[in-house]
């Protein structure tokens, strides 16, 4: 995975979250997140490139979906999506994180996007 990440040639992009929503609607502990429509296209493209290239290099696993978001909190609350003033920044690098339920996150590495 690290070798694949080193080869990503995507240019920096702007990410913009402008909606609050709830993930895991049926779970007891739901995630309240910020997400966005067109404002997260660059992040979705980065994910697609990584997923495609990882598979091309022979790494297998379940097809992963991507809904770029920023988790605000975990709680039992549930809300219908609603708009908020955009929270935006320029993305110049990315981090691969090993994420296993009920285990601490493990940072596998950080890479700078092309042209940063």
Please characterize this protein's 3D structure.
With 116 residues, this protein is an alpha+beta fold. The protein contains two helices and six strands, in the order αββαββββ. A four-stranded antiparallel beta sheet has the order 3-2-1-4, covered by helices on one side. A two-stranded antiparallel ribbon has the order 5-6. The radius of gyration is 15 Å and the shape is globular. The mean pLDDT is 88.
Strand line-up of the largest beta sheet: 3-2-1-4
Low-confidence stretches: none
Give the tally of β-strands: 6
Total number of helices: 2
* Percent range of helical residues: 10-25%
Task: Provide the succession of SSEs.
Answer: HEEHEEEE
| Average pLDDT | 88
**End-to-end Cα distance:** 21 Å
Classify the beta-strand content into a percent band. 35-45%
The coarse silhouette is globular
Which sheet architecture does the biggest sheet show? Answer: 4 strands, antiparallel
Q: What Rg is obtained from the alpha carbons, in whole angstroms?
A: 15 Å
Structural class: alpha+beta
């Amino acid at each position: 995975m690290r070798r694949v990440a080193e080869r990503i040639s995507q240019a920096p992009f702007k990410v913009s979250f402008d909606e609050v929503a709830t993930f895991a609607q049926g779970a007891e502990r739901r995630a309240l997140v910020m997400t966005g429509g067109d404002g997260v296209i660059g992040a979705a493209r980065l994910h697609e490139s990584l997923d495609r290239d990882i598979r091309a290099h022979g790494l297998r696993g379940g097809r992963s979906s991507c809904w770029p978001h920023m988790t605000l909190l975990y709680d039992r609350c549930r809300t219908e999506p609603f708009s908020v003033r955009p929270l935006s920044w320029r993305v110049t690098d990315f981090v691969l994180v090993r994420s296993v339920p009920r285990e601490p996150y493990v940072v596998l590495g950080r890479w700078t996007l092309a042209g940063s």
